[in-house]
């Protein structure tokens, strides 16, 4: 069956946003005298949904506030932080997306909110390459639930086997594979130790991912 679409994650896949997420969390947690090193925090929470991370942090530190409040504060802080320092594009992203757009329909499928993802894509002049964006705001159950990917497939009116997903973390991989979408994982420093055994292919970079896509478009 021919592949017609690429469903692409945002954080950690297109942009190196883990440091921005870390800085945002530290801003929110520092009034509670809670401090993590960047490496420790990112190794534990890379790819983890914000509300899930907030729930863990609240319980671990016995905070007398709701996980939802922590989540909302962190999301707001991320928007403010990324306005000042945009997350960097990962190597090869622009070339990959521009080449892929010539052959496939591109859909962003992210656990980030629109306020977090869209300004960054717009800043790098990538937003218009996507035919649709499925953000956390658009679903009831975000990743690792399959709903974001199922919603993307529904929007495109295609079957799961007519698309590839590109992800960087176990959370995203679980979401995509649960929706029946073959998934290419491009791990980074903080996600490479996660379980990616259900991936169709694990690539070192976008060049390897593109080569795999080209060889398997008609399978």
UniProtKB/TrEMBL annotation:
Q: Which InterPro entries match?
A: Beta-PGM-like (IPR051600), HAD-like_sf (IPR036412), HAD-SF_hydro_IA (IPR006439), HAD_2 (IPR041492), HAD_sf (IPR023214), PGP-like_dom2 (IPR023198)
Q: What family does this chain come from, according to its entry?
A: Belongs to the HAD-like hydrolase superfamily. CbbY/CbbZ/Gph/YieH family.
Parts forming coiled coils: none
Identify the cofactor(s).
Mg(2+)
List the molecular function annotations (GO) for this entry. Answer: catalytic activity; metal ion binding
User: What Pfam family is a match for this entry?
Assistant: HAD_2
Q: What name does the UniProt record give this protein?
A: HAD family phosphatase
- Report keywords, A-Z: Carbohydrate metabolism, Magnesium, Metal-binding
